[in-house]
Design a protein that fits this description.
Elements lengths: L1 E8 L6 E10 L3 E6 L10 H8 L2 E6 L18 H14 L6 E5 L1 H11 L5 E5 L7 H20 L2 H8 L2 H8 L11 H13 L3 H7 L14 E6 L9 H8 L4 E5 L6 H4 L1 H21 L1
Parallel strand pairs: 3-4, 3-5, 5-6, 6-7, 7-8
Antiparallel strand pairs: 1-2, 2-4
């Protein structure tokens, strides 16, 4: 069941109030799930039940995406603002230093939370920020084309397309290796989420100069990449490993850019193994 929470964030304009939507289930150490640009928390539905068997799982709609409100007018959608805002969100939910798993933009935010001391472990699935300039331009052009397509397609046509495997592939084949596995309802919902994302353009603009260049020491980090990622090519995982040398680099065979749907069992295992390694470190300390 989706709920909302409001909290105060620091911004270049001074303190402002943000309101986000989230779903929470399970028990155990907290695990925060962060989706990618233009997506919504439902991207995690294929894995949340598995994760909730061991964790207090909190999946959020990032500000300006899904059902969450946009950031207040004039507040930037950059890492320097959104990362501490996620820390403030955790505090509002009574959570301190959760495990964090993120995909794409969410993976970049997860790494930044880890670097900033806001996470106890990080699992980054095809994280943004390890691109060359050419790769970034390609990814942004692809995202803009997807956004334009979602806006140009009338809802009756979208619903009609979603009913066939070929239509689901046309709509979501860029981000999934196995788009036919997505239900028609899920494809419609995520296309509408992309169409209606109020934070899309500002987030994309803020990402133009982003490169993740810092190590994330002192906590378990896993960077996982789908072998069939067509948006952020898997060679970027090698760069990520060089940047964060202590990270575990994992291949996700047969998975696309949003791997949670392509192989829920594998993705869940990668996230759970990372969280467990944090507990092992604490016991050994």
């Amino acid at each position: 069941m989706t709920a909302t929470v409001s909290f105060t964030i620091d911004s270049p304009l001074g303190p402002r109030t943000a309101t986000v939507s989230y779903e929470r289930k399970g028990a155990g150490e907290p695990l925060l799930l962060l989706h990618g640009i233009g997506h919504h928390l439902q991207a995690w539905h294929p894995v949340t039940d598995i994760l909730a068997a061991e964790h207090d799982v909190i999946a959020v709609d990032l500000p300006g995406f899904g059902s969450s409100d946009p950031l207040p007018a004039g507040v930037p959608y950059d890492l320097a603002t959104v990362t501490p805002a996620l820390g403030a969100l955790c505090a509002a939910l009574g959570v301190e230093r959760p495990h964090v798993a993120g995909n794409s933009l969410g993976g970049l935010l997860a790494l930044e939370m880890g670097r900033s001391g806001l996470a106890r472990s990080v699992t980054a699935l095809s994280p943004a920020g390890f691109w060359t300039e050419g790769e970034r331009r390609y990814a942004f052009a692809t995202l803009l084309a997807m956004r334009a397509g979602s806006r140009a397609l009338p809802r009756p046509a979208l619903e009609r397309l979603s009913r066939s495997a070929a239509g689901r592939a046309a709509l979501t084949g860029t981000i999934y290796a196995r788009p036919a596995r997505r239900s028609p309802a899920a494809v419609v919902a995520e296309t509408l989420a992309l169409r209606d994302a109020t934070g899309f353009e500002e987030t994309l603009a803020a990402g133009g100069s982003v490169r993740f260049t810092d190590d994330v020491p002192g906590l378990p980090v896993t960077i996982a990449w789908g072998t069939r990622d067509r948006l952020l090519l898997r060679r970027q995982g090698v760069r990520a490993k060089h940047t964060v040398p202590g990270a575990r680099l994992v291949r996700l065979p047969g998975c696309g850019h949003v791997p949670m749907s392509d192989d829920p069992a594998l993705v869940s295992r990668v996230i759970l193994d990372t969280a467990r390694s944090a507990a092992t470190r604490r016991l050994a300390a």
